[in-house]
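queue> holo job accepted (nicotinamide-adenine-dinucleotide)
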Amino acid sequence: MELRINLTEQSYPIYIGRGVLGRLGEEIKKIYSNKKIAVVTDENVDKFYGEKVKSTLEKSGFQVFKIVVKPGEKSKSIEELVNLYNNILDAEITRGDLIIALGGGVVGDLTGFAASTLLRGIPYIQIPTSLLAQIDSSIGGKVAVDLPRGKNLVGNFYHPQAVFIDPDVLDTLDKRFFYDGMAEVIKYGCIKNKELFYKLMECDEKRILESIEDIIYTCCCIKKEVVEKDEKDNHDRMILNFGHTLGHAIEKYYNFEKYTHGEAVALGMYIITKKSEEMNLTKKGTAELIGEVLSKHNLEHEIYLEDRESILKAISFDKKSKGEFIDIILLKDIGESFIHKIEKEKISSFI
Ligand SMILES: NC(=O)c1ccc[n+]([C@@H]2O[C@H](COP(=O)([O-])OP(=O)(O)OC[C@H]3O[C@@H](n4cnc5c(N)ncnc54)[C@H](O)[C@@H]3O)[C@@H](O)[C@H]2O)c1
Ligand SMILES: [Zn+2]
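queue> job finished
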């Protein structure tokens, strides 16, 4: 399956297919004519796919330099970025060469940011290996690293030359990360696609895995549509943030230790919808449906917020909340989302 992201100044393909990793060399040959490639990955992904990717590229005549970072968000730091710059320069990669990000969102964001800034920009390709990266972070051009005071504070918009998605690699992904990605799949159903939502309601994990290729394709199509409308995240892209205002605050409140991103977003989607339903902004019964689908995919939806004040504070410091107002994303119904502007101080009524 193939789709194209069409932007004002650039357009690039996304290939989705089981086994695409094994055909990588031939595919890249079609779009890149130099020899050198730096492949950036993390230790976990390297263990399963590092050699495979290296050898398929070498078979097609490329000279490959593999750079392996530690797994986890800590690698999205300025220190790791500097190490990565040095490793890429040590491999004598120039602006005419290519960088590949092989991994989850961490590797994708870090590598993409390095590629966007080193030597004023080196072309790169995304090979996302976590479900979250395959349906979300590898598409849309957002790349970033973290600062000690917050996530993704140093970033850029820098699109890859192509994205290669091989659903087979999800077999080795830890279950918790799979469910984490499922929260974002559910989000896409909630904001834009009723059929997807009800499919997720019907299918157990086994059936989801059987049709994961189609599910990834559907999610990528939704992200494509939203990104093409709003390349620089000025307005319309905001709907991708359904469940995230509160989700981010919950993640931050628990120091990014208790809940994964997806788990926090799951809570955010349910809590905000329950409230918007009470306020007659959302069709009755919607929160219950969201709760049901989340449970089906091993995601909690109810928590007791111990410290509302701190969570509210975390929302105010979110980099997306500008001025006195805050935009939150709500549902009219499953598959229908809208942007709702409220005064910051009224956010408390939503949690
Ligand atoms: N750029 C964007 O638009 C965007 C969007 C959403 C999230 N993000 C970012 O993405 C990051 C989270 O991404 P993530 O959830 O993929 O985390 P991650 O990159 O840390 O990957 C999760 C874990 O799974 C492992 N892994 C990945 N693929 C594997 C595979 N196929 N087999 C075995 N293990 C595998 C990784 O080593 C890691 O331990 C965050 O930093 C977040 O800010 C970016
Ligand atoms: Zn998210």
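queue> The chain has a mean pLDDT of 93.
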